Amino acid sequence: MAGVSSGKVVIFGAGGPVGAATMTALKDHYTLRCTDATALDRIVSEERRQSAKAPLPELLEAPHERTVVDVTDYDQVREACDGMDGAINLTVLRGELDKAFAVNTVGAYNVAKAAADAGVRRLIHTGPFHARMAHHADHWQDHQVPDDVPLHPGDDLYALSKYLGGQITRVFAEASDLDVLTYLFCGFRPGEVQPAERGRGAGPFTVSWEDSGRSFLYGLRAGDMPQPYEVFFIAADTPDRKYPVDKARRLLGWEAEDTFEELFRHPGH
Amino acid sequence: MGAMLCRRLATRHEVIPIGTAGKSDHELGSSGAYRPTDLNQPPAAADGIRGADIIVHAQPHDPAIGDGAAGEAQLLERISRGTYVLAQAAVEAGIGRLILISQISLFDTVSVDFVVTADWQPRPAPQATSLAPYMAELVCREIARVGLIEAVALRMGELDEVGGTSADDAVAAVEEALAADPASGGYLWSQRHVVSGGYGAPGRD
Fold this sequence. Notes:
The complex is a heterodimer. By secondary structure, chain A is α/β, with parallel strands linked by helices. Chain A has a single domain, classed as NAD(P)-binding Rossmann-like Domain (Rossmann fold). Chain A is about 35% helix and about 15% strand. In chain A, strand 2, helix 2 and strand 3 form a beta-alpha-beta unit. The mean pLDDT of chain A is about 95. In chain B, about 35% of the residues lie in helices and about 15% in strands. Chain B is an alpha/beta fold. In chain B, the strands form two sheets. A four-stranded parallel beta sheet of chain B has the order 3-4-5-6, sandwiched between helices. In chain B, strands 1-2 form a two-stranded parallel ribbon. In chain B, helix 3 links the parallel strand 3 and strand 4. Chain B has a single domain, classed as Rossmann fold (3-Layer(aba) Sandwich). The radius of gyration of chain B is 16 Å and the shape is globular. Chains A and B meet through helix 4 and helix 5 of A and helix 3 and helix 4 of B.
């Protein structure tokens, strides 16, 4: 199934920083239905930033839409998918048992089911790649770890509940006509490197907020995928060679513009 | 399945039956007192398994589902979160082994031409009832993988139905899992098929 080069796209979890960056990257190319469990107006008016330098969402005017959608409620999700060509699921709840499985696992089920039912042509699901889980089954000691490496979430609530959501989404992709890309993220930071940061390094799986948003434009537009469910690392290609970000370059044509090279070189070189 | 296992295992073991219902509607034989337990809540799960040495988690085999989309959501959350909370409570309590009763129907979509073994990747359908036991397996597998508990999934068919799993075979498989040497195969996670008839037979692998 070909990609989505124009039309309507619904974003679930648009109120977070990746949602904000995604809206900025997509707003001139698609008509967006931006949804979040909290009204975007409230997120902006109360300046609910995830961290000090994380972006806030723009309050886009018509023809774009913004609405409140709770992904744990299938009927709301199904209605939000109506008439959409593409869907992006950025929802996440990290540390609360009472909501983690509801949002990360059941929410993924609701989004995949609704997208398949509504005839959405491409769904981009998202989740974490925990580079360092502090157990013996993670991939922290490895290098050249590929995008398709099986995740080992251990007993971490956030990692495990999102992992289940990813597996549910895979099942929908393999059993229906739903075309799914799953983006894995780890660390985020602003694209601009401050002089005082030079030479200080960065996590081995980091992407700028700006590049994270742009990756969705490439993902929506990309042509047919080899498999109905494809997983991509979304990170800058850092010189430590732990995570080669090769698949996104090959299949989506995306690579990070912010490479943070100054962070990995001695200041003055 | 859970009630049958309670009745039969209680003839040789001290069995503590727990479940989400306020009271059990099933005959539990010589099992101990039934403990109504909300597995979604860590304190309740800890209370429910108090005194146990091994856990047999049969709920994912035949969980009840409510109506409509809300019923699907409740089922998925109850099984995924409930299994997570149960396994965490077991780890906290120092319980070394969890026996999960899963569903052989995870392979219903595979052509009957194939000789399916327990090492194959499950192929659940994109429906909550099919995904729920798979979620339970994944939760147990990932927690076992990092060394916190030993877990085995026994994938069974419908109890005493044609193509399903007989009560005798189900009990024998659980007894075997109860008595097995911990991690005798070198892993803390394993899965077995326990089917008495139909294309999945004979028995186990």
